[in-house]
Amino acid sequence: MNIPKLSKKPITKSCHGISWEDEYAWIHQDNILEVLKDGSKLLPEVKEYLEDENSFTEKSLLDTKSLRKKLFREIKGRIKLDDESLPFKDKQYEYWTRVTKEGNYSKNLRRKIGTNKIEIYWDGDLEAKGKKFFNTGDISVSNNDELLGYSVDEKGSEYFTIYIRRMADKKIVEEPIADTTGSITWSYDDRYFFYTKLDKFHRAKKIFRHKLNTPITDDELIFEEMDDRFTCSIGTSSDEKFYFISTSEHTTSEVHFFSKDEKSPKPKIFLKRENEIEYSLDSWNGYFWIHTNKRAKDFKICRCKNENIEKWEDYIPAKEEILIGSFFLLNNWMIRAEIVDALPKLFVRNLKTNKEEELIISSEEVISPGISLKQKDRNTDVIRIGYESPRTPSRVYEYNIITKEKKLVKELEIPSGYDRENYITKRINCVGHDGRKIPITITHHKNTKLDGSAHVLLYGYGSYGYSSPTNFSTSRLSLIERDIIWATAHIRGGMERGMKYWEEGKMLNKKNTFKDYISCAKFLIDKKFTSKGKIIGYGGSAGGLLMGVVANEAPELFLGMIMSVPFLDSLSTNLDHSLPLTVGEFNEFGNAKENKDHFVYIKSYSPYENIKKMDYPNLLVTTSLSDNRVLFDEPTKYVAKLRDFKTDKNLLLFKCEMNAGHGGRSGRDAAIEEIAFDYAFALKIANKI
Q1: Domain regions of the chain by residue span
Q2: β-strand partners of 300
Q3: Which of 218, 276, 320, 489 is the one with CA 20 to 30 A from 643?
Q4: How much of the chain exceeds pLDDT 70, in percent?
Q5: Residue 274 neighbours by CB under 8 Å, 6+ apart
Q6: How far apart are CA 166 and CA 178, in angstroms?
Q7: Cα dist. 159→38, 629, 665 in Å?
Q8: Is 277 exposed, middle or buried (0-12, 13-18, 19+ CB in 10 A)?
């Protein structure tokens, strides 16, 4: 087979008096954001190269074709194809969703309370028919239950068009509104709806109010964010008295609010933005409730009277290295979350007595708990609580806060069969290069030998304060049942151990993220979970940045790596302030263009810049042509350059989805096919075909 080749057209770049050559920079077109919306504008030579890479990858994995089909059947066989969610009781209707055996998309249903007539008011399969890509942004019914607002992206570029449809006859009754974030917020009186418009850089900057039955050219601009780093959105309060406009970047936020009674909205600022101060807002029982890290590193919950926003009181005070999480309110109760020692917990507080107790759902050590309402009316003592763990499928209970009675109302069913006693999940701590404890969550089959003979798939992310999940996955079983141990490295850059844990893995501390992951790999080898050269790295987006750095720094530890929509050319992206996400991430990665220290630091770890003449592990790199978050040209350049430098004969495979975005292809079957493709690669290099 001929290995694909991309033409070299060297360009000299310079910044802060430092010059360097980039042989593949030419593929980043000046109109790159237009290319994401319309693939026909892609340079013909680049399109041909992407198609050559796709063909080369398919031929290289020809021996996995039957395995991929088998994995697809396995994974799909564990999914209950005909299933329904639990109903949510609104004021006049119950609402729920359904999936079917034949379909790839969900259906939305409702039933008027007191009747048996079921109405399918949204059918994703019908809407998606004939489209190469289909993604729904929002499906929102008006408060009077008469109109349906929905938004659709048919490219994968996350430019959503909003439509308004009359429920009675399913006719479109308003002009479509293009280039939005997709979110639709109905006014309480249903005379208007609010939406957020994307600018030319794909940033959410303007919030408009549209009056029904009027031209969209008359839409009223009610808020505009002028700082390039910030993007905005709009929502409503729990007591249905206020609208909240939230504007933020990753570490700083600001909220504006206005009353539902204002005929012409004049948003007022709640608390002026302060660098690296975050807060969110709700309103209930005459109070604004504030979740914030102002004078509280790991957050706290405060409140103030609606009429006196200057006078705050601490309601849930800050705790040392215990992350105070989100909350919601009933008439008599607050239910809230915490993360303690990298493990989530739930608490229930009596709003009248302020007495609080932990809500214990399961005796398992490592779980992902959750809470939801069963009805819109919050004058209730009954809620839904649920959990899942890496070895336990999702369970949902109706829980009476007063009597503590717990009734199982839904459990994830696995049609092909499942016995949780066959699997073991444990949480262990690895000591990092600087003494920091790094949690690792491990799941394996009970028959897998822990003598160093097993392969490990080591998942990692470690950015934006995002804590890696400890959820159940039916698809992972296809690896676990083949003696591959699934391990999640909860590395710095996430918030598993609070805000400090995030700060220790970003900006000029970013290398801790990569070192933590390498420490986890070495720890798993030392403790005989696996052996050197038997680990398969797995990460997507910013997790792809992690994979790229580690491949340069410690390739000998790994058998292979799977990099999904990976952030591999981090220096070029950081220097380009016209890209959608760059300026909003200055407090995450730094600003290389304006700060020489940031420039030197990012350049020292950027995967593309640090490719070396050496042996690399087997690599599978995947991307999507319409990805607005990590542009396809990053992994494209990376693969082309790596082909020039690597000295091994291991696999280097590159796959570009030509009709997809950051989340991959759309539809249930397509998503399963992508997982099966990745897993087949992992099993091939592990000699488990």
Answers
A1: 423-685
A2: 292
A3: 489
A4: 100
A5: 252, 294
A6: 19
A7: 11, 12, 16
A8: middle
Rounded average pLDDT over 630-640: 97
Separation of CA 266 from chain center? 33
Which tokens in the block code for residue 17?
């008096």
CB atoms within 10 A of CB 422: 13
CA distances from 502 to 367, 462, 466, 513, 553 (A): 21, 8, 8, 9, 22
For residue 192, count other CB atoms closer than 10 A to its CB.
18
Phi–psi pair at 553, nearest 5 degrees: -95, -35
CA neighbours closer than 13 Å in the CB half-sphere of residue 133: 26
DSSP state of 172: B
Bridge partners of 561, per DSSP, are 537, 619
Residue 1 has pLDDT above 80, yes or no: no
Residue 689 has pLDDT above 90, yes or no: no
Q: Is residue 245 a contact partner of residue 252, using CB atoms and an 8 Å limit?
A: no
pLDDT digit string, tens, across residues 281-299: 999 999 999 999 999 999 9
AA identity, residue 640: A
Helical spans, DSSP H, in 472-541: 477-480, 499-503, 511-526
Q: Over the stretch 547-567, which tens digit does the pLDDT of each residue have?
A: 999 999 999 999 999 999 999
* Angle in degrees, 0-180, between the axes of helices 668-685 and 65-77, rounded to the nearest 10: 130
Q: What is the mean pLDDT of residues 524-542?
A: 98
Encoding tokens for residue 141?
């019914």
Cα 131 to Cα 104, 128, 134, 152, 445, distances in angstroms: 12, 6, 6, 11, 40
The whole-number pLDDT of residue 4 equals 96
Average pLDDT over all residues of the chain: 96
Instruction: Say if residue 667's pLDDT is above 80.
Output: yes
Band (321; pLDDT cuts 50, 70, 90): confident
640 φ, ψ (degrees, to nearest 5) = -60, -45
The CA distance from 198 to 233, in Å, is 11
Looking at the domain that runs over 423-685, which CATH code has it been given? 3.40.50.1820
Is pTM beyond 0.70 here? yes
Question: Which residues have CB under 8 Å from 615's CB, separation 6+?
Answer: 555, 556, 646, 647, 648, 650
pLDDT tens figures, 578-614: 999 999 999 999 999 999 999 999 999 999 999 999 9
Q: What is the mean pLDDT of residues 411-428?
A: 97
Distant-in-sequence, close-in-space partners of 537: CB < 8 Å, separation ≥ 6: 458, 460, 517, 521, 546, 547, 550, 551, 558, 560, 561, 562, 617
DSSP category for residue 325: E
Is 207 in contact with 245 (CB distance < 8 Å)?
yes
Q: Where are the beta strands (DSSP E) in 330-464?
A: 333-340, 343-350, 356-358, 368-372, 382-389, 392-400, 406-411, 423-431, 437-445, 455-460
Taking only Cα atoms into account, the Rg of the chain, rounded to an integer number of angstroms, comes to 25
* Strands (E) located in 461-588: 484-489, 535-540, 558-564
pLDDT digits (tens, 9 = 90+) for 43-63: 999 999 999 999 999 999 999
